[in-house]
Predict the structure.
Amino acid sequence: MTETALAWIDEELTRLREAGLLANIRTIESHMDAWVTIDGRRLLNFCANNYLGLANHPQLRQAAKAAIDQYGIGPGAVRTIAGTMTLHVELEQRLAAFKKAEACITFQSGFMANLATIPALVGQEDVVFSDELNHASIIDACRLSRARVVRYAHNNVDDLQRRIAATTDYRRRLIVTDGVFSMDGDIAPLDRICETAEEHGILLMVDDAHGDGVLGKGGRGIVDHFGLHGRVHIEVGTLSKAFGVVGGLVAGNRTIIEWLRQRGRPFLFSSAMTAPDVAACIEATKMLQESSELVEQLWANTAILKQGMVELGFDIGHSQTPIVPVMLGEAPLAQAFSRRLFEEGLFAMAIGYPTVPLGKARIRVMNSAAHSPQDLEQALAIFERVGRELSVI
Ligand SMILES: *Cc1c(COP(=O)(O)O)cnc(C)c1O
């Protein structure tokens, strides 16, 4: 029986189902790793953002267990009332040191970090210059701030400059960009964006969710990649991708971090990360500080996979990172491709409109340091088989 007040939701869901746009959510029955179990079958996993294979790393598991014995599980309250444990402070200090930033504050997720930061910095009388392909959490955070949003063409600094020149009479200004764009794997020209911001005295924020643990020396992120330490005011990051856990962070200028402790609403009104999460993140940060081995492994795997795909004749776009989009064109082909990969034992997601433009559907192949040489070889063999069968190569 459908309640009248809910009928429209049923209709919308039916429409999505009929258009083939209903998200088919797979359930993982195993650890998150290079291989996962789905519907009782072992599959090669090229779907996750688990870049360094830390999601199931023995050292992180151990650290989380030890933290449970010492601190229990929940933080008990929001950070400002009673929810800040020594663990939270240690993680923030370690992340600041790792990223060579003045200070750092952590949040429950990267999404929350954006929701906390943008509305704390700009309001109704202000303007945000935002790359047209920025992540949904940036878009939502901008809306929440009620600032005017001026979108500039993707990674186009000339267009950004034109729009800055044409946008006057605002109290405060902020430029915000993703560091790595997760659908194409391209990198923001942060050096030129930074020069532009400095030239005009505008606050600069980068969301480096896919760059943390991936770009820069030992995975220190996009600011390190471009050598812009101390020049980018706000670096947002996530602990849910390369760090293998869950959580968000903002690193950067000390004054801004202090302000977020006073005015970041998800910090003030939502409880903190749990003790085992934080301890696992501390362990991940320590591992990255001590060795760049995993990051190097990730990039070595990426090179093998990209070269293999190109040799097979696939179009892999213009990725500069471990994200490998295998471009297929129309959404039904990408969906059929993903389904056949799944049947052949490989888990990789088809992505279509509206996440990417019409006619640019693709399989997004996510590399991990956890993949062995045999895993990569097997993955390429499966792509070759399915690619020939569907006349893509
Ligand atoms: C994944 C992602 C986020 C969200 O991070 P979570 O920690 O999963 O909430 C935010 N911004 C960008 C650019 C991302 O890619």
Residues 80 and 268 are 6 Å apart (CA to CA). Residues 109-111, 135, 137, 178, 182, 207, 209-210, 238, 240, 248 surround pyridoxal-5'-phosphate (CB under 6 Å). The two ends are 49 Å apart (CA to CA). The longest strand covers residues 323-329.
